[in-house]
Design goal:
This is Sugar ABC transporter substrate-binding protein. Keywords: Cell membrane, Lipoprotein, Membrane, Palmitate, Signal. The structure is a single chain. With 470 residues, this protein is α/β, with parallel strands linked by helices. The chain has two domains: 210 residues, Periplasmic binding protein-like II (D-Maltodextrin-Binding Protein, domain 2); 218 residues, Periplasmic binding protein-like II (D-Maltodextrin-Binding Protein, domain 2). The protein is 38% helix and 15% strand. It has 18 helices and 13 strands. The strands form two sheets. Strands 6, 7, 8, 9, 10, 11 and 13 form a seven-stranded mixed β-sheet that branches. The protein has a six-stranded mixed β-sheet with strand order 2-1-3-12-5-4. Helix 7 crosses helix 8 and helix 16 runs antiparallel to helix 18. It is globular.
Length: 470
């Protein structure tokens, strides 16, 4: 799905195709019957025909006319499943999407519900444009994980349509060749940062076969790197939090990037290249880290989001790559970030209850099974993480690493205390802040400036960006 660069790095066409596959796949590719014998996919129960017309709901999405038609086909299934609500899909080209919504908002003609860029949720909430959706799962047997709720002034204003967390990927052949133990998949056995760096040195090799922890190693002739930590601005927050710092205060109203703990964590990421000589140079501008590292066969370990399993690693696995997943290493606290695109109910709607009913159906795991089973999305509802039967139904498939490894490093990790929401779940103006931080850190990655000097020099501008000021 074409959302922010950081997540769901897959075209909307692919998303829709995979979603539609859920209705025509084999029994090995979709949920089986539940333990009670009921079908896993449940449409809303039909009710007696009402005496009035159906409530008409418009759902907005970004995409082409053809993509809109595919989404409308899904909506038609919902429409046919009950006789109270009729959903019409409005497809808007990606490049015009937010402009169109802003125009509609000004004219009082917003759709009832739709998808919204992650970094726009809190902004729209602060402008009074979004409904409180905390009642969406009232009476349900499960609700989304707490870390997937977008919150503004204590109210839930959106739920993520899918879940994603940051992981450590690794090349098993490289580890086997070096006779080095694999990274731990269990949170209670997570490596410290020092253990991570020490292992990376054993896996970094120069053209003469010397490792980074051996005498005679030449950092100017490295042919295999031990590690790569994705340094896109939003992902860097995981390390800052792990070190006891932060980008923002807990309520998102003030900036903490200038604290010593925050600066120290960023410098240590830079030092993987500058001093430890275990990582390739990355300037934090493109979200293709797994392709450039693990898939390219140049790096033994790399951090990035779970979505990479579906968007790129499945194909690489079919081509012979043997990879594994593990939890992230840590400084002081064990931290991973989660994210997910937001579906919202606009405040201009006259039918918030019906809009929420549609969203709840549309985002149900059973109705997005192609995306989940391929590894692009993770479920949102807590029961898929806690109910062993559902977890097996999700994880037992050829697209994932072995069950125990994936369950520990992904399923258990995502519901642990280590999983924290990315800043856009509670903070405004994250695009401006992350863009400025990314440019601020450019010279840090190349060693032209220290993290302390670069951040101190731009700290007031970063604080202003957090307030929406240029």
């Amino acid at each position: 799905m074409k959302t922010m660069k950081k997540g769901f790095v897959v075209s909307l066409s692919m998303v829709l195709i995979l979603s539609m596959m859920a209705g025509c796949s084999t029994n090995n590719d979709k949920p089986s019957a539940s333990p009670t014998g009921e079908a896993a996919t449940k449409a809303p129960e039909k009710t007696a025909a009402p005496s009035t017309e159906k409530v008409k709901i418009t759902y907005s999405m970004w995409g082409s006319e053809a993509e809109g038609s595919a989404t409308q086909a899904a909506a038609d299934k919902f429409n046919a499943s009950q006789n109270r609500i009729e959903v019409k899909v409005q497809a808007i080209p990606w490049e015009n999407y937010m402009t169109k919504l802003n125009t509609q908002a000004t004219a009082g003609q917003l759709p009832d519900t739709g998808i919204l860029k992650e970094d726009g949720v809190i902004q729209w909430s602060s402008d009074g444009m979004l409904n409180d959706v905390s009642a969406m799962y009232s009476g349900s047997d499960s609700k989304p994980l707490d870390s997937l709720a977008y919150k503004y002034q204590g109210k839930t204003v959106a739920y993520a349509a899918a879940n994603e967390i940051l992981l450590l990927y690794y090349n098993k052949d490289m580890f086997d060749k070096a006779k080095v133990p694999y990274p731990p998949s269990a949170l209670d056995k997570a490596w410290t940062w020092d253990e991570f760096v020490a292992t990376a040195k054993k896996l970094t090799v120069d053209k003469n076969g010397k490792h980074a922890d051996e005498a005679g190693f030449n950092p100017q002739s490295i042919v295999q790197y031990g590690a790569s930590v994705e340094n896109l601005a939003w992902q860097l927050e995981a390390w800052v939090l792990s070190n006891g710092g932060g980008f923002y205060s807990g309520d998102g109203t003030s900036v903490r990037i200038g604290e010593d703990a925050s600066i120290e964590a960023i410098q240590k990421v830079a030092d993987l290249y500058l001093k430890d000589h275990v990582a390739p140079l990355s300037v934090g501008q493109t979200d293709d880290g797994i392709q450039r590292t693990i898939i390219a066969g140049t790096v033994a370990m790399a951090t990035n989001g779970q979505w990479n399993i579906g968007t790129s690693l499945n194909a690489a696995k079919d081509a012979g790559l043997k990879y594994g997943v593990a939890v992230l290493p840590y400084f002081k606290e064990k931290v991973t970030l989660n994210t997910g695109g937001a579906n919202v109910v606009f405040s201009q709607t006259k039918h918030p209850k019906e809009a929420m009913e549609w969203l709840k159906w549309y985002t149900a795991e059973e109705n997005n099974w192609g995306l989940i089973s391929s590894g692009i999305w993770m479920p949102t509802l807590k029961k898929w993480y806690t109910d062993e039967t559902l977890t097996h139904r999700w994880v037992d498939n050829k697209n994932f690493p072995p069950y125990n490894e994936y369950k520990s490093a992904v399923v258990d990790y995502a519901q642990s205390s280590a999983a924290r929401p990315a800043a856009w779940f509670y903070t405004n103006h994250t695009t401006d802040f992350n863009t400025l931080l990314g440019s601020t850190l450019g010279d840090v990655w190349t060693g032209k400036a220290t993290a302390k000097d670069a951040i101190t020099k731009n700290l007031e501008a970063l604080k202003a960006a957090n307030k929406g000021k240029k």
